[in-house]
Structures are given as structure tokens and as C-alpha cells.
């Protein structure tokens, strides 16, 4: 999430010094619609907060409004940092029933203020989302013998329904499902998408086309980037931010990537000829791996010029070979690829804590 340094919410009007009184806090709160006062030092370092509700409670208890604000302020408030994702912030604010929360830097300086209503009223996006739902799911047999993997339930919903709802929460409403294996079951469950107030259309793979081949079946008149995602992923990525990052980079294609670490369980010996140069005990190696989600500009989609098998890494390799700008978007939010039975069982155990039910309102609703 980008660093917030502006004052669009008028949070500076709510800042008062440590020598202020409850009366002055009330005046600061009344001067804005935020219902919160931030107690800061001369350099905007956060010392505490007090809400309109806090003040009402202490006044009802008979406390004088000339009482120093430091006697009643919350010195350990919930705060967020610029790198926290939108979904992370929304989830934690809703769980703690917070209507507003400050954003601070590593030194405790206030940068901005999150207002929950501003976060959950999502911008509508017209970009197409393509969900790849045609795989055989062989590694999850026998579960997938009678049902396609995207319809396997994790928690109370099919995997691909949770994916759909995550996109809806981020303002997307135009979907294509690329289907093949037991496609009639997916089409029966989702139909045209009206149950979720979205539009779902289907790309029918007459033969398996890989993770990129079905791009050829999309309309040829695309004029804005699309998001492509595997239909067996569970994630809390903010897809709007993913899309905005791609646009800001002026990229032809952007790949979501995930950091992967593994440890060698032995001491690794660095040698030259027969001499030992170094010894590393059980070193940890790190790299980035493909996370199965992509933003593609129309130029990248048009690069798929025939209806043949093509995987997404091969499309990226082709774009790279031609000198096209391809970028990566590191994913730090929750992410789970449900490729094997262990992953499926782990996702079942984590679903409730990660995808707890919440209400997200759209603009104009």
C-alpha cells in the first residue's frame, strides 16, 4: 500500500498537544467529522488518541472537561503502517470495531488516518477478470473424481466462490471462467453471476489449453488490462492495488510472486580445489516463485495468436525475449495454492480466521 502523507481526511485538524485538556479535545473533534483526536508532540509523533465516545464516557462519570487529556487518552491505540495492505487494515478494523485508526511510520510519526467507511466503499472497476477453472485436479483425487477442483469446498464455500467474492469486494464485476473438466457443474453453480451481482461468461476449452492458451478465446477488442488467476488459489491480496501497480509501472505483463524459503539441513562447505573456504551451517535460501496471478495489458493478450496449449510462464518468456516490459508484484498477504491434499487440509483449518464473514459495501449500494 502506498505511503499516505496527505490530509484528505482532515486529520491534522484533530491533532492536539500533550498539554491540551478534554475541552480542547472536544473542540478538535467538533472541528472535523472524524470523531477522534490525535495527541501528538511538536513533530507529530503519536502519544495517544481519544475518541468522541471516550470523552462522552468520562464526562458522564463527572470528570471536569478541564482535565488534562493525558489523564484519559489511550496510550496504546491500534495503529497501522504504510506497507499494511488494504484488506489487512479492513479485517483488523472490523474485528476491533474501529471506525478510524492512524497510520504511523517506524518512528511513530503520524502520516495519515484510515477511515473504515472510506476503505470499504470500493471503487468500481470495469477490468475483466479471467479465472482458470478447467484443470483436472489430479493431485486431489479422489476428491476431484466427481467434482471439479474449483468447486471443492474450503470452509462453507467452493474455492472459486471465495475467489469471486474477493474480487467483488475489490470492485470487480466482469468475469470470464475458462472451463473444461466437468464444466457443466461450474456453469450450473454460477450461471450468469447475477446471484453475486456480477456478469460471468464462459470460455469453453475444447481441448486443454494450459494457463494462458484460453486468452485467445477472449474478445479481441480489449482496451484495458485484465487480471488472470488460477482457480485454485486462496489469497487476501488487494486485487485493485495489484492492478494499479501494473498500470503505474507501465508494464505489458505483471506476475504476482511469492517469496519462498528453504533450509539445507546440513553444513554447506565452500571449496576451491581441495581447500575449504567457508562453512555455513544449515543455510536458508530464498527466491521468488510464481503465485499464479497476473495482470496483462491488451498487448500481452493479443500475443496469444492461436488456440493452442500455452502456459503463462511461456507467454512471459516470449514477451521478455521481445524486450517487452514485464514486472513482478510481491505478495505479502495470505496466499495458499490448493494443489495437494496437505494444502487442502491446511486451508480448511485456516479458512475461518482468514476469510471470516464481513460486510463490504460498494459505491452506490
What does this structure look like?
This protein has helices at residues 22-30, 52-60, 86-95, 116-120, 159-169, 183-190, 239-248, 298-302, 312-321, 341-354, and strands at 15-16, 36-40, 46-51, 100-104, 110-115, 125-133, 153-154, 157-158, 172-179, 199-204, 226-230, 233-235, 253-263, 267-272, 275-281, 284-296, 326-330, 335-337. The longest helix has 14 residues, at 341-354. The two termini are 25 Å apart. With 365 residues, the chain is an alpha/beta fold. The strands form six sheets. A seven-stranded mixed sheet has the order 10-9-6-11-16-13-17. Strands 1-2-3 form a three-stranded mixed sheet. A two-stranded antiparallel sheet has the order 4-5. The relative contact order is 0.12. Strand 2 and strand 3 (46-51) form a beta hairpin. The protein contains ten helices and 18 strands.
Q: In summary, what is this structure?
A:
With 365 residues, this protein is of the alpha/beta class. The chain is built from ten helices and 18 strands.
Amino acid at each position: 500500500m502506498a505511503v499516505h502523507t496527505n490530509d484528505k481526511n482532515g486529520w491534522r485538524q484533530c491533532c492536539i498537544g500533550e498539554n491540551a485538556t478534554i475541552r480542547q479535545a472536544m473542540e478538535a473533534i467538533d472541528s472535523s467529522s472524524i470523531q477522534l483526536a490525535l495527541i501528538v508532540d511538536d513533530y507529530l509523533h503519536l502519544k495517544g488518541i481519544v475518541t468522541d465516545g471516550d470523552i462522552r464516557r468520562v464526562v458522564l462519570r463527572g470528570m471536569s472537561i478541564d482535565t488534562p487529556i493525558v489523564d484519559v487518552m489511550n496510550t496504546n491505540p491500534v495503529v497501522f503502517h504504510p506497507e499494511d495492505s488494504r484488506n489487512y487494515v479492513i479485517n483488523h478494523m472490523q474485528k476491533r470495531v474501529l471506525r478510524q485508526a492512524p497510520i504511523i511510520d517506524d518512528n511513530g510519526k503520524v502520516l495519515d488516518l484510515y477511515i473504515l467507511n472510506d476503505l470499504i466503499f470500493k471503487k468500481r472497476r470495469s477490468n475483466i477478470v479471467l479465472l482458470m477453472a478447467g484443470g483436472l485436479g489430479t493431485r486431489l483425487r479422489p476428491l476431484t473424481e466427481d467434482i471439479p477442483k474449483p468447486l471443492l469446498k474450503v470452509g462453507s464455500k467452493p474455492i472459486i466462490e471465495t475467489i469471486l467474492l474477493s474480487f467483488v469486494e475489490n470492485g470487480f464485476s466482469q468475469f470470464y471462467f475458462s472451463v473444461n473438466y466437468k464444466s457443466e457443474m461450474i456453469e450450473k453453480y454460477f450461471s450468469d453471476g447475477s446471484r453475486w451481482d456480477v456478469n460471468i461468461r464462459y470460455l469453453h476449452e475444447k481441448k486443454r489449453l494450459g494457463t494462458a492458451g484460453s486468452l485467445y478465446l477472449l474478445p479481441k477488442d480489449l482496451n484495458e488490462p485484465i487480471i488472470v488467476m488460477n482457480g485454485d488459489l486462496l489469497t487476501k491480496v488487494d486485487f485493485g492495488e495489484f492492478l494499479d501497480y501494473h498500470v503505474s509501472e507501465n508494464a505489458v505483463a505483471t506476475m504476482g510472486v511469492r517469496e519462498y524459503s528453504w533450509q539445507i539441513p546440513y553444513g554447506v562447505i565452500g571449496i576451491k580445489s581441495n581447500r575449504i573456504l567457508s562453512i555455513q551451517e544449515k543455510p536458508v535460501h530464498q527466491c521468488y516463485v510464481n503465485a499464479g496471478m497476473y495482470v496483462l495489458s491488451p498487448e500481452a493478450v493479443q500475443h496469444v495468436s492461436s488456440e493452442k496449449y500455452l502456459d503463462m510462464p511461456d507467454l512471459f518468456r516470449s514477451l521478455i525475449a521481445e524486450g517487452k516490459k514485464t514486472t513482478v508484484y510481491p505478495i505479502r498477504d495470505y496466499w495458499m495454492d490448493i494443489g495437494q491434499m496437505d494444502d487442502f487440509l491446511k486451508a480448511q483449518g485456516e479458512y475461518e480466521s482468514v476469510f471470516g464473514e464481513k460486510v463490504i459495501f460498494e459505491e452506490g449500494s
